Batch of 2 targets.
Target 1
Amino acid sequence: MKPIPANQLLAGLALAGPEPITDVVTDSRKVTPGCVFVCFPGEHVDGHDYAAAACKAGAAYIVANRPMDGVPEDRLVVVPSSHHAMVRMASNYRMLFSPLMIGVTGSVGKTTTKEFCYAVLSAFGNTLKTEGNQNNEIGLPNTLFRLDDATEYAVVEMGMSALGEIERLARAARPSAGIITKIGVSHLENLGSRENILKAKLELCYGLPDGAPLVLNADDDLLPAAKLPDRLRPVWFGIENGSADVRAVDIRQEGGGTRFVLSDREYGDFPAVIPTVGLHTVSDALAAYTAATRLGLDPARAAAALADYRTTGMRQHIVQKGGVTVVEDCYNASPDSMRAALAVLQGLPAKRHIALLGDMLELGAVSEQAHRQVGEWAAEAGVDLLIAYGPRSRAAAEAARAKGVTSLHCNTEDEVVGYVRQNVRPGDALLAKASHAMKLDDVLARFYQTL
């Protein structure tokens, strides 16, 4: 973080002096002299309990939700919401810099699209990106605080669980271009309908300047009919929709990658290769190329840079373990991403195709229907064995079994590890996918110990 005067960083939150602030931290173990320490009340740990110690360690200011013993009044900033205060400070800090920035949101594919954007932008200069999926009102500010004078390009990911969140993040980040990947059913429990999810994702527009490119998925069923601000420049990408501005045609899977022709109505055709499989990742690559080129970057160079994509974490990471081809996709799950992952499994050469699918969370009233649909998709994808993990996934097992798929169901980690060990053999392909809270990464780690 570049040093910034306290009165500039804390503008809109408190009156402060001109002393330089060198960092903003939310972990008391990372407090250094001259930083701002932001207290967050958590489920297990409350940052307010460490405020006095942070002050003694040299924190210049403490941002808290209430008055604190042991913190001098002139060093305490009391705010209604620590989350909103983080976003406000990040917005103030963002004003010091002017990189070309892409903002990415959507119900599915955000992180993969962000990583494709990073691959493309990095071909043109020093690029900052959101690490992992740090896309909320703590993660996005932490990304913006990493901006410095050397940053030429940036890509930031924006997530949400309620209306209004993406608007706050977008206004803080002020991206030069925006991408909306897809309108799915994630967070339906909080938002109630896909129309409300669409409304939430379109809040990205509030942070875009007049004339900015807004990159949209033409294959989505809701986005093409959405009312968009006249002041923005919509650009459409897609695979199935022939009217899209940027399309992928002649798509061919080659080993662990995909080759296609990137057909751009404005700039022509370019060969492209990405080190991933699945049509959904082709779509994510199209989004990144489209945003970069509409910001003025060279199209041929942008298309070639898609090959530099690298996966992060356990997101559709294909590995070989003891003769088993494993698709590690344990970070998140929604009906859309489940269907895409099953298509990837189906395309892998193997003696048998086995799906280890865990619960999808935050689906609200459609949860049982969505899990049953996943079971039916597993049957359509030719899965030889479905191992369903978690109470919600019982519906997936029942639906797959009704379609003739051998299906097992379990509720504990020990059960699922036992089923995987008993049933997965060399020559098989195994897909492991669930919401992150199901901890399938731990299941795989225990399974790998036996190979």
Target 2
Amino acid sequence: MTEEYTKLQKKTKYDYVKTAKKENFLFLNENFCKNGQTVLLGDSITELFNSYELFFDFSQKSGQAVYNRGISGDTSDRLSERLKCNALNLEPRNLVLLIGTNDLGVGLPQAFIVENIREALKMTRALCPNTNIVLQAVYPVNRHLNLAARQMVGKRRNKDIAALNAVLREVAVQYGAIWLDLTEALADKKGRLSAEYTFDGLHLNAQGFAVAAKKIIPCLK
């Protein structure tokens, strides 16, 4: 799959903004961050997470900082590449992963996504065997809110998301990760991302992030 994998990676090449964010996180990790904390790692959904406010009580009670290492537009292969320098170099106590929706958004196959996430979990287990991994299911989407939502959601389909999540659940079990599926908590009666929790059909609003944080925190150690 090497040649095919290389071709697929070309669809997800970093631009200078994403590269700068990756390098910024590396600088912060090496110079200002403490080991043994909680790291949120993912794409724009993670980057937008109101993590300071919503994890404040957790941080106060546990003494742990919660570092947000989300990069907008990130895909599973790019996340796997920066996993070591943006997260594992902190030897995190908790690593919360959410990735895959952008892969679907550019039409990458399920097998490609699963392989990258599998490699991320494998690397984490090898380098940080004591890290508590929380692998989140990819969130549902809602293209029916308005024209902007249809454009934002693009190629993503909830049936594809559900199929991907079914496989990722097994990967989580294989590597001893906690599997956290928030689909039921975030979806409306039709299985779409609830209008109450999103502003564009893809990303959560503060109310949605509050729901996510409430579910994530009990999984942390």
